[in-house]
Specification:
binds FE(8)-S(7) cluster, nitrogen fixation, binds iron/sulfur cluster, seven-stranded mixed sheet, S-adenosyl-L-methionine, alpha/beta, three-stranded antiparallel sheet, TIM Barrel, globular, 9 helices
Length: 297
């Protein structure tokens, strides 16, 4: 539970449905899909799901401008009073679209003060934006970290695009890993709550995620969320991981158990869409398309 945490942290998590297991029964979140571009390639990506950008069936998210996103936030906030958090989590990487992402948060701060802001990123560009994140009072940041060993990373990430240059293989994974861990350190040094999501990929990083858990805990991450790779033919193409199986529920639980003694583990993640609206596990996004919101005026 959250009751044994310091007061300032309890204040930050008590109505955040992902950071507090208790809160997820009562508080809702919404994602606004304002961030189409990405600066890396994950082998498991198909850009429909977030905030670990999973691969599942579904329609492509409705992409919004920051102004449309703010309008949608106001419409949802008045229809769903339990909506406490607005997240930008895709469909690409929010920090590969910094102008759109931060403009959206600025507008939400102005038009709907009191709503918590949440950001999910692969971490490559994070260190460049920590000042802006702090200035806009984005109190919750999720980084998807799947490895700390670049040899393993090379099997997950075919390339990254960093400082105007494309990198591949072990070199790419090494840059990404250094940036991710630096990002965790910079956020926690500022008192910004940092959650780490990891996608569990059997035979690739499943044994390794205990080491990832220790690395992020020692750098001050608040919560670790191990999520299963979702991979089956009916879920469509998984970029670069064709034929890769996902872990069983038992395998995920066993890994969560072996990390639990060291750090808070999130066990109620529902692997949301980049435009999800509502309580975790429910998706009311189709009630709030831009077309319907415009018709509400
Ligand atoms: Fe969204 Fe992610 Fe913020 Fe939550 S989702 S950006 S931290 S407000 Fe939550 Fe959804 Fe799991 Fe993400 S259940 S996929 S952990
Ligand atoms: Fe896809 Fe996200 Fe990976 Fe980018 S960071 S390739 S959007 S899963």
């Amino acid at each position: 539970g959250i009751s044994n945490l310091p007061n300032e942290i309890v204040e930050k998590v008590k109505n955040h449905p992902c950071y507090s297991e208790e809160a997820h029964h009562h508080y809702a979140r919404m994602h606004v899909a304002v961030a189409p571009a990405c600066n890396i390639q994950c082998n498991y990506c198909n850009r429909k799901y977030d905030c670990a950008n999973e691969s599942r069936p579904g329609i492509v998210s409705e992409k919004l401008t920051p102004e449309q996103a703010a309008k949608k936030v106001l419409a949802v906030a008045s229809a769903i009073p339990q909506m406490s958090v607005v997240g930008v989590a895709g469909p690409g990487d929010p920090l590969a679209n910094p102008d759109k992402t931060f403009k959206t948060f600025e507008l939400v701060n102005k038009l709907a003060p009191g709503i918590k802001l949440c950001l999910s990123t692969n971490g490559l560009a994070l260190a460049d934006h920590v000042d802006t994140i702090a200035r806009l009072k984005i109190d919750h940041v999720t980084i998807t970290i799947n490895m700390i060993d670049p040899e393993i990373g090379a099997k997950i990430y075919p390339w990254i695009f960093y400082r105007h240059k494309r990198y591949t293989g072990v070199e790419a994974a090494s840059i990404l890993s250094n940036r991710q861990l630096q990002g965790v350190e910079m956020l926690t040094a500022r008192g910004i709550l940092c959650k780490v999501n990891s996608v569990m990929i059997p035979g690739i990083n499943d044994q390794h995620l205990v080491a990832v858990n220790m690395a992020v805990k020692s750098r001050g991450a608040f919560l670790h969320n191990v999520m299963p790779l979702i991979s089956s033919p009916e879920h469509g193409t998984v970029f670069g991981l064709r034929g890769q199986r996902g872990p069983t529920a038992q395998e995920v639980t066993a890994l969560q158990d072996s990390c639990e003694s060291k750090m808070n583990m999130m066990r109620h993640c529902r692997q949301c869409r980049a435009d999800a609206v509502g309580l975790l596990g429910e998706d009311r996004g189709s009630e709030f398309t831009m077309e319907k919101i415009m018709a509400m005026d």
